[in-house]
């Protein structure tokens, strides 16, 4: 360097260099000997770790630095004295450095140049060439700048040298042109720029505080841009965000155009074409190996583990996992919304969806959510519980409606399992304070209340989630809820959710309702928190919640015990009655709702005969309420008031049935004038308000029914007053139009219910129930207005007009409608309870309609009995009683043997039929219309969740009745040792086993003929049901010692009784082949198999095959070729049954075949093809052949054997082509028949002809047909048996 150049440098003291070797990278300075990087704890910041590494490698600045002293005092020198030796700006410095570099390169040898290149590539990577090109291009774009001014001195810009070896810290992206009012990104190209000139050997001057100014660029919304976020762990990233490139990129949005609701998706940083070429370009170095890209696993292996092979398992941790091999997991955002898999890897990281193990995918899997829902960080736990809330809401929606929008198809079929897991997560956090506990309550609410459809379950058990109840641990949950409610630390919304949860639990079952009642302090806490609020309410205090009253109604409806326990707490609810809505301190709508629900609660208690004394205690308040209800426009209020009046009138009809007795008297009801006040509710009601009409007519009916018992001359005066008020309305007024509207609406709903979606079906059933209630109340009022209750007494004139023809046709439609197959759950049955009540009331009315014959009335009663639902037991007993009363010996005629009436007639089986209707005497479900008997005897107002037709002494109710319920007396005889009926028979009952069987079969026969007479065959017993009934008669002897029985007085088997045998023969005759050829109505009935028909008796635990095995063994033991006994063995031999039945008879019991002589016309079957097709093969063919060769099969059985043997031999009657193996079997079978069979067998097998798909030809015609097939068979005989046998059989073929 020249002296001028030396003058630029002050005094320099050389420091002692460190003797420590230089490591390739400070990052791996402390790497252990195993070859893996050391673990770095996140508790230290990046800055702290960097400082620690510097200390470890000895690069820290020495503490004691020698002072820098100039050799002579520095004198201020003007820039102009520097001349050309002092570069004036950055371009001069850059040019000077470039020239010096060129001189150094020119003086280097070729080896030195290659060494320098290797060092640069090793430090900066393979893309250094393109990197320099981009720096030079950027510098060229910046060339036309205004020359910088330093102390009023202009410095001319020099040209940039052709070759530049400057390396920028940040590689500029294409299009980084200078933009107005936008700060640029600093890089190495800006190094050396100064705002002021410095004196050599001195520091730049430090500005004082006064000169310091904070300046901002004048930015506009169009100058600030939103970029897609970089990957979570990028290999390289820039320190500041660069401005957007010149070329338009739609993924970069300006704040001026950025949509508020849109979120840019995450994507990799844009790479220029030059960068792509640099990544792909491979530099060849001295050793001839290609250098991999920096940061790749191969680069790390070569640099830090050069001696380890590439396929060594110890370095497999560096290789990235294959994305395609990872399973696609369902992920959710923070609202519980599923994130599609195709965008899970593209969402930005600032959304908070990457706080889990797999940081490359946005969203949380189920495992992530359940894990984080137990986090110790409250905010994180509350957030995850909120995610579970959204997931539970979506799962509940798709459970209720499989066609709902946004359904998560990946979770179909897993809803119940996930519901239990989500509920468990919510339960575990309910005791937490703050937002965690609030979110946990919301999770439980979604899993219990929000999940299931909204059912009006006051009068039915839901029983929708038995598995959820086990997860919930109801007793512990109720205790926990009590504590939460008593602390009053939750917001009002969470308190209301807890109330809703308890209300939902009460709907589940009567057992859960009992737990709620017995939980300590729960009921008082609920009353005090949600009902007994301060009056007048403070500004910030919560108002009463009507859901609490609905809870009390459900609890009272569940059992009489609960209702009695609630009577004491109900006194405080009188506050909602004493203050009518106009004067209530609460909002009028809330006050009306509270009043309505309180009246419903009183009505529920009155259904048990409880708490009716309140009508006397608060008589003045109820008088005011009655006047207000008349003027009110609230339909629910009018319905609730009319329902309460009806219940109290029923209690007063027989005061001995209330609890305690005489709580309300008929004289009090009369003095209060409720009969007239109820009819005043009719004022202002239109025909569209059908529910109000039904309630008013129901209360009026109760008034007239009570007057018939307690009034003068059977209530004649009360009926006259009522008729004068309503007669014109029914004849030509609004009442008549209301009945017409109900008729039309009910028909329309029944017509469309089959097409109604599953999610809307319950609402349709509710509408049917409302319209049926109108018709039921109208018919009940008509019956109450009649002067007598005797059904067969003549009427001079109807009390008022009703559309009798329309009602009759509607009843016929209802009893045969498929609607009943849709009503299987308790909530659905409770919603339409008025429909069977309408049928029962109309059955009473139809006896008074001219033209109704006794047998038609009996047919109506039999159909109505089949359609009655739980709670209609009283209607069922009444219908059964009047039906049996009609079936007298005079009505039946010669069908009834005199011996039956001599032994008491129907009294022999009446206890068994009553038991079929009500099997459990300890449970009494209140009817839809309460009666004086029901208020004393009922134990619950709620229907069971479901009912079963299987005979079981533990059933709550026998309704709806089984199709074979009339044969139930025989079932009890078969189980006489355990039958509860035999344990409770009255002392006057003295019928024998034969008497019970005779009477039961006679009742079945009479009802069967009546139903077929009026084309009601689908209500009659089917073929399989009739066969199984007769089988049970024979099975009465199973396990008996056949000795004289003093208990029954029988000396012989029941089936050998002449009357019993005759009745069974008459019962099965319509189902034989002979009846089918005569077009008997019974033979054309749709049938079910015996395995299904036997379920009501055998249940799921005993298969019918076992029963049939015992039946066949009993036939072998005691039948003595009884024809009916033998014919009952035939139906299970049809080819629709498993082959086991045929193997049992044709194989194991082949010796009984010779006793079964069953003519073709006496075979119990609908079609002979059932035993002929499809053609049998295999082992059973040997059994058929053996029976033919031994001559044990005759009549029908012989035809079956010949058919299957012949079809296995002759190709012309086979139904399909067979293989070589089957052809060999056919030849062997033909040879056995010809060589070992007698003449009849050989002739029948050789000449048998039957064509599938055509009319079945009966013997002997099936052996006498002719055609070209004879020659084909003869040719086959010649091929198989030879010419000699062919000649011997010519007579058979030609005869």
* Major sheet size, sense and barrel closure: 2 strands, antiparallel
- Cα-atom Rg, whole angstroms? 49 Å
Overall outline: flat
**Unreliable stretches, pLDDT < 50, 5 or more residues?**
1-11, 17-35, 58-87, 145-212, 227-240, 253-288, 1042-1050
Straight-line distance between termini: 139 Å
Proportion of residues in extended strands: under 5%
What proportion of the residues is helical, as a percent range?
A: 40-55%
**Strand order in the largest sheet:** 1-2
Which class best fits the helix and strand makeup?
mainly alpha
Residue-averaged pLDDT: 82
InterPro entries: RPAP1/Rba50, RPAP1_C, RPAP1_N, TPR_RPAP1/MINIYO-like
Domain RPAP1/MINIYO-like TPR repeats: 1084-1206
Protein name: RNA polymerase II-associated protein 1 C-terminal domain-containing protein
Domain RPAP1 N-terminal: 95-133
């Amino acid at each position: 360097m020249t002296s001028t150049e030396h003058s630029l440098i002050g005094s320099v003291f050389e420091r002692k260099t460190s003797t420590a070797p230089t490591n390739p990278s400070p990052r791996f300075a402390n790497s252990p000997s195993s070859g893996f990087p050391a673990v770095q704890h996140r508790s230290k910041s990046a800055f702290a770790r960097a400082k620690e590494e510097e200390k470890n490698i000895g690069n820290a600045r020495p503490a004691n630095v020698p002072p820098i002293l100039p050799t002579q005092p520095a004198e201020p020198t003007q820039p102009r004295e520097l001349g050309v030796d002092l570069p004036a700006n950055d371009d001069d410095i850059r040019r000077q450095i470039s020239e010096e570099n060129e001189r150094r390169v020119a003086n280097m040898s070729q080896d030195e140049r290659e060494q320098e290149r290797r060092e640069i590539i090793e430090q900066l990577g393979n893309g250094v060439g393109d990197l320099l090109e981009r720096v030079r291009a950027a510098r060229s774009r910046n060339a036309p700048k205004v020359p910088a001014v330093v102390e009023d001195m202009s410095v001319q810009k020099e040209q940039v040298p052709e070759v530049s070896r400057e390396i920028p810290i940040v590689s500029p992206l294409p299009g980084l042109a200078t933009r107005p009012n936008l700060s640029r990104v600093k890089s190495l190209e800006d190094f050396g720029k100064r705002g002021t000139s410095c004196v050599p050997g001195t520091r730049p001057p430090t500005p004082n505080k006064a000169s310091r100014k904070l300046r901002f660029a004048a930015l506009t919304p169009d100058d600030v841009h939103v970029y897609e976020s970089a990957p979570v762990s990028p290999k390289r990233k820039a320190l500041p965000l660069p401005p957007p490139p010149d070329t338009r990129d739609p993924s970069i949005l300006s704040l001026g155009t950025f949509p508020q609701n849109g979120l840019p998706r995450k994507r990799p940083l844009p790479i220029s074409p030059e960068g792509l070429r640099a990544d792909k370009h491979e530099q060849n170095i001295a050793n001839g190996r290609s250098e991999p890209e920096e940061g790749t696993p191969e680069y790390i292996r070569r640099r830090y583990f050069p001696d380890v092979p590439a396929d060594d398992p110890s370095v497999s941790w560096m290789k990235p996992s294959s994305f395609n091999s990872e399973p696609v997991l369902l992920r959710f955002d923070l609202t519980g919304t599923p994130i599609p898999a195709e965008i899970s890897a593209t969402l930005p990281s600032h959304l908070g969806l990457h706080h889990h193990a797999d940081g490359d995918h946005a969203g949380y899997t189920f495992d992530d959510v359940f894990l984080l829902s137990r986090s110790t960080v409250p905010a994180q736990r509350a957030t995850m519980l909120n995610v579970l809330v959204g997931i539970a809401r979506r799962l509940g929606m798709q459970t209720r409606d499989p066609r709902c929008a946004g359904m998560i198809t990946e979770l179909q079929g897993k809803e119940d399992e996930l519901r239990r897991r989500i509920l468990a997560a919510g339960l575990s956090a309910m005791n937490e304070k703050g937002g965690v506990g609030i979110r946990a309550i919301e999770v439980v609410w979604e899993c219990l209340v929000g999940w299931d459809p909204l059912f009006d379950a006051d009068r039915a058990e839901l029983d929708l989630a038995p598995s959820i109840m086990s997860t919930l641990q109801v007793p512990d949950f109720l205790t926990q809820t009590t504590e939460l409610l008593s602390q009053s630390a939750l917001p009002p919304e969470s308190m209301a959710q807890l109330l809703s949860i308890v209300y939902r639990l009460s709907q589940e079952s009567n057992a859960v309702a009992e737990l709620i009642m017995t939980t300590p302090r729960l009921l008082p806490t609920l009353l005090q928190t949600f009902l007994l609020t301060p009056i007048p309410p403070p500004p910030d205090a919560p108002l009463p919640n009507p859901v609490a009253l609905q809870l009390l109604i459900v609890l009272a409806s569940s059992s009489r015990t609960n209702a009695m326990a609630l009577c004491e707490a109900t006194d405080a609810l009188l506050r909602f009655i004493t203050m009518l809505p106009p004067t209530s301190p609460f909002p009028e709508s809330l006050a009306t709702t509270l009043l309505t629900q309180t009246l419903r609660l009183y009505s529920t208690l009155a259904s048990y005969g409880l708490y009716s004394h309140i009508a006397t205690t608060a008589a003045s308040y109820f008088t005011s309420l009655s006047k207000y209800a008349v003027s009110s426009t609230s339909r629910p209020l009018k319905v609730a008031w009319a329902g309460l009046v009806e219940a109290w009138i029923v209690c007063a009809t027989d005061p001995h049935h209330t609890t305690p007795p005489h709580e309300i008297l008929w004289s009090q009801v009369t003095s209060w004038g409720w009969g007239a006040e109820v009819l005043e509710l009719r004022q202002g009601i239109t025909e569209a308000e059908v529910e109000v009409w039904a309630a008013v007519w129901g209360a009026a009916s109760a008034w007239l029914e009570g007057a018939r018992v307690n009034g003068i001359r059977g209530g004649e005066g009360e009926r006259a007053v009522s008729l004068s008020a309503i007669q014109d309305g029914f004849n030509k007024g609004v009442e008549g139009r209301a009945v017409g509207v109900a008729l039309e609406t009910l028909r329309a709903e029944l017509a469309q219910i089959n097409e109604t979606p599953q999610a809307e079906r319950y609402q349709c059933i509710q509408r049917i129930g409302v319209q049926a209630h109108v018709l039921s109340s109208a018919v009940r009022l008509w019956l109450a207005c009649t002067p007598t209750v005797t059904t067969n007494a003549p009427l001079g004139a109807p009390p008022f007009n009703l559309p009798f023809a329309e009602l009759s046709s509607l009843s016929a439609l209802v009893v045969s409608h498929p609607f009943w197959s849709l009503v299987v759950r308790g909530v659905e049955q409770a919603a339409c309870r008025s429909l069977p009540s309408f049928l029962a009331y109309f059955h009473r009315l139809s006896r008074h309609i001219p033209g109704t014959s006794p047998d038609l009335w009996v047919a109506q009663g039999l159909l109505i009995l089949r359609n009655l639902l739980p709670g209609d037991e009283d209607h069922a007993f009444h219908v059964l009683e009047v039906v049996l009363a009609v079936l007298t010996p005079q009505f039946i005629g010669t069908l009834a043997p005199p011996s039956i009436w001599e032994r008491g007639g129907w009294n022999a089986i009446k206890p068994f039929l009553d038991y079929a209707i009500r099997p459990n005497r300890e449970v009494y479900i209140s009817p839809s219309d309460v009666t004086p008997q029901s208020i004393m005897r009922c134990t619950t107002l709620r229907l069971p969740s479901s009912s079963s037709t299987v005979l079981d002494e533990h059933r709550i109710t026998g309704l709806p009745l089984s199709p074979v319920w009339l044969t139930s007396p025989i079932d009890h005889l078969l189980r006489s040792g355990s039958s509860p009926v035999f344990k409770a028979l009255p002392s006057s009952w003295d019928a024998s086993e034969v008497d019970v069987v005779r009477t039961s079969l006679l009742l079945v026969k009479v009802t069967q003929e009546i139903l077929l007479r009026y084309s009601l065959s689908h209500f009659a017993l089917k073929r399989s049901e009739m066969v199984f009934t007769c089988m049970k008669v024979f099975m009465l002897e199973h396990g008996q010692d056949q000795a004289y029985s003093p208990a029954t007085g029988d000396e012989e088997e029941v089936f050998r009784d002449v009357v019993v045998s005759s009745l069974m023969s008459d019962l099965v005759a319509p189902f034989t082949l002979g009846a089918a050829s005569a077009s008997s109505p019974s033979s054309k009935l749709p049938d079910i198999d015996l395995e299904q028909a036997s379920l009501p008796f055998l249940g799921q635990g005993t298969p019918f095959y076992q029963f049939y095995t015992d039946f066949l063994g009993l036939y072998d033991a005691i039948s003595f070729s009884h024809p009916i006994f033998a014919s009952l063995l035939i139906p299970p031999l049809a080819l629709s049954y498993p082959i086991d039945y045929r193997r049992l008879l044709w194989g194991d019991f082949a010796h009984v075949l010779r006793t079964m002589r069953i003519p073709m016309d006496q075979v119990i079957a609908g079609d002979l093809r059932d035993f002929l097709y499809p053609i049998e093969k295999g082992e059973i063919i040997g059994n058929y052949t053996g029976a033919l060769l031994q001559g044990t099969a005759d009549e029908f059985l012989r035809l079956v054997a010949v058919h299957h043997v012949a079809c296995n031999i002759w190709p012309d009657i086979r139904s399909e082509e067979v293989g070589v193996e089957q052809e060999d079997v056919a030849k062997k079978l033909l040879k056995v028949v010809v060589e070992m069979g007698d003449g009849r067998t050989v002739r029948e097998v050789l000449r048998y002809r039957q064509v599938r798909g055509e009319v079945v030809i009966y013997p002997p015609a099936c052996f006498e047909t002719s055609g070209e097939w004879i020659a084909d068979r003869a040719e086959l005989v010649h091929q198989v048996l030879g010419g000699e046998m062919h000649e011997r059989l010519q007579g058979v073929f030609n005869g």
